[in-house]
Amino acid sequence: MDAVFSLILLLLFAWGLCAQKVARVELTAPVVFVAAGFLLHHGFGTEELVPSPATVRTLVETTLTWVLFTDAARLSLRSLRPDLGLYARLLLIGLPLCIGLGTLVALGLVPGVSGWAALYLGTALAPTDAALGASMMNNPVVPARIRRTINVESGLNDGIATPVVVLSLAGLAAAGGGAGHEGAGGALVELLIGLVYGAAIGLVSGLLVRSALRRSWTVESSAGAAVLALALLCYTSAIALGGNGFVAAFVAGLAFGTAYGEGAPEWQLAFVEQSASVLSLLVWLMFGAVMLPAALEHLTWQAVCYAVLSLTVIRMVPVALALLGSGLDRRTVLFVGWFGPRGLASVIFGLLAVEGLAPAAARVVVPVVVCTVLLSVVAHGLTSGPLARWYGSAVRQDAGAGRRSPADELPVRGLAGRAPRPGA
Prior knowledge:
Layout: H1 2-23, H2 29-44, H3 46-49, H4 53-73, H5 77-80, H6 84-109, H7 115-124, H8 134-137, H9 144-177, H10 183-214, H11 220-240, H12 245-258, H13 266-297, H14 301-311, H15 313-322, H16 330-338, H17 344-356, H18 359-400
Helix pairs in contact: 1-2, 2-13, 4-11, 4-12, 4-13, 4-17, 6-7, 6-9, 6-14, 6-15, 7-9, 7-18, 9-10, 9-17, 9-18, 10-11, 10-12, 11-12, 11-13, 13-17, 13-18, 14-15, 14-18, 15-16, 17-18
């Protein structure tokens, strides 16, 4: 076990030394750590790699809590206002359509799924992860407006989807997929408590941090540590009160940013974001070492077919419908529709299913999630750079011909989500 742990730490250290160099050859962190996890599995076996269920649960819950809180807390309504209608189309129309279409396709295609299982698949595979298209997100030839649109969508759709995932898992568990669950009714109560409590603690905490800084009671480094603890406090205390911790963390992040008016300052969230980034690498490693080998044993052609449809029709049709009348040209709509990678949120939702469902129920849905995420890691990783260059070149040609592109540059006022910032 010490040897395995040392190898994992060595991998983290090596990645920290050469992350930028590796990114230049179109290799993202998920690709590297999934491959490393898969190799570790074959070198040491799953028994040596799998921590206790309590450790898995803690890793997953902490990662998702920090991700949800930071994605929400950095939002600034003023900076988003120029394209607020565009974001609303993708999140309030495109996301529900994607969940609905994904649910219907799962019911008709995946064998053995119930209504709750289909809803889980449709929702768990709806959130996007802009970090999987890092080379596109960092490429200045792609208009800032389009990069920001993809990034903001990615930063918010996992928080919006989380309550539905929790509800579907509770319904699936109560129907026989797991023990110790109160079903959908109990989950709804937990969601409501988490919503109210998260809003209250986030707003009060934001005001307290602002006041402490203004009165010089603390300094930036200490405030960053306070926000790190606050995000987890929202989760743990909400659960202690009978609420849903994930919803509480996301809503608390929104309220915390609202207390600042312009979203929480980047330096306050940097400590939390860096901590979440390290844990996310471990989640990807666990995906390659634990989830991927187990899912391959139960992989079916239906799961592969659903994965292909999830990344194409199930994603791109809702986006196209949501953007009707937005003024974006067909090429831009296709570009935004394709860059909906399934990443960290879907992996975490898959791990929650592994941990919370009976093995028979998990075997129905987890291989579909794993296959979709793996295909997305490869497909979006390989196409991110080439498609960015193609699209940027097409936009420049439009500009050279004197045609105003609906994807014209707008000032970058702060990107939500986990994608690396341009120049980072």
